[in-house]
């Protein structure tokens, strides 16, 4: 088995303990009230319906097996129909949407110690996430993660999402390694293990709930915390 020359992480659920509820009415109530200040008369229910219709329309135009939507594009189209063509409003609506839908947002207790330990081995680290550009980079800065990573691959930038193998190939290319020399660490077998293994990467699944071993896509290694994964990587490289 080749030695590990690059470590690539999932973000949310692996390094970041997050819980979101994007469908709750409160999200769209806050957005609706905010937009009233700019002349919009759209109420909560209408805005929610329009948002999901526009999101679906956007996804249907992608022509991808695993399409990703762009939150900025969705709000840009919604606001344009409201006669609001202000780029600032697009950005602010995206961030209000995220803040209002976020119910838990913090690092897992083992995240920073594990990243420091892995970083000490001198290999490039990349982060590959199904996420939105508009808030992803701000959130990793808020949590102090930026300093640990060399490269970032964000699904909304590319227009397709994990488990699309192209994202994993992009990560390996950025790290300048063959997929066999890279390991992907994630928390979702159907997305992370499936995608990484499809190009020959090694995989480790963080299984904090200890309930994913019956998934159809089997990781090379399972652990309840990142410390065990870090020790396993260098114990066999």
What features would you describe in this structure?
By secondary structure, the chain is α/β, with parallel strands linked by helices. The longest helix is centred in the first third of the chain and has 17 residues. It has a six-stranded parallel sheet, sandwiched between helices. Strands 2-3 form a two-stranded antiparallel ribbon. It folds into two domains: 146 residues, HAD superfamily/HAD-like (Rossmann fold, 3-Layer(aba) Sandwich); 84 residues, DNA polymerase, domain 1 (Orthogonal Bundle), CATH 1.10.150. The model has no long low-confidence stretch (mean pLDDT 94). It is elongated, with a radius of gyration of 19 Å.
What distinguishing features does this structure have?
237 residues; alpha/beta; Rossmann fold; DNA polymerase, domain 1; 2 domains; six-stranded parallel sheet; two-stranded antiparallel ribbon; 46% helix
Short account of what is shown:
The chain is of the alpha/beta class. The chain has helices at 25-36, 44-60, 71-81, 87-101, 111-119, 133-142, 155-158, 165-175, 189-197, 226-235; strands at residues 6-9, 16-20, 102-107, 125-129, 151-154, 182-186, 202-206, 221-223. The longest helix has 17 residues, at 44-60.
What would CATH call the class of the largest domain? Alpha Beta
| Residue share in β-strands | 15-25%
Helix content: 40-55%
Which fold name corresponds to the CATH topology of the largest domain? Rossmann fold
């Amino acid at each position: 088995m080749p030695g590990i020359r690059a470590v690539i992480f999932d973000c949310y659920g692996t390094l970041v303990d997050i819980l979101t509820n994007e469908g709750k009415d409160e999200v769209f109530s806050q957005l609706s009230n905010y937009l009233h200040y700019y002349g919009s008369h759209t109420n909560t229910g209408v805005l929610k319906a329009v948002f999901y219709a526009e999101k679906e329309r956007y996804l249907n135009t992608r022509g991808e097996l695993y399409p990703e939507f762009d939150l900025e594009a969705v709000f840009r189209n919604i606001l344009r129909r409201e006669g609001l063509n202000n780029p600032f409003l697009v950005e602010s609506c995206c961030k209000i949407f995220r803040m209002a839908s976020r119910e838990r947002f913090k690092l897992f207790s083992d995240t920073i110690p594990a990243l420091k330990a892995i970083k000490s081995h001198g290999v490039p680290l990349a982060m590959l996430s199904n996420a939105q550009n508009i808030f992803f980079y701000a959130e990793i800065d808020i949590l102090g993660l930026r300093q640990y990573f060399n490269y970032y691959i964000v699904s909304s930038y590319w227009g397709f999402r994990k488990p699309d193998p192209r994202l994993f190939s992009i990560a390996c290319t950025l790290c300048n390694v063959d997929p066999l020399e890279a390991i992907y660490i994630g928390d979702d077998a159907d997305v992370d293990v499936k995608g990484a293994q499809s190009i020959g990467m090694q995989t480790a699944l963080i299984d904090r709930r200890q309930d994913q071993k019956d998934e159809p896509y089997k990781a090379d290694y399972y652990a309840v915390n990142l410390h065990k994964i870090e020790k396993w990587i260098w114990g066999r490289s």
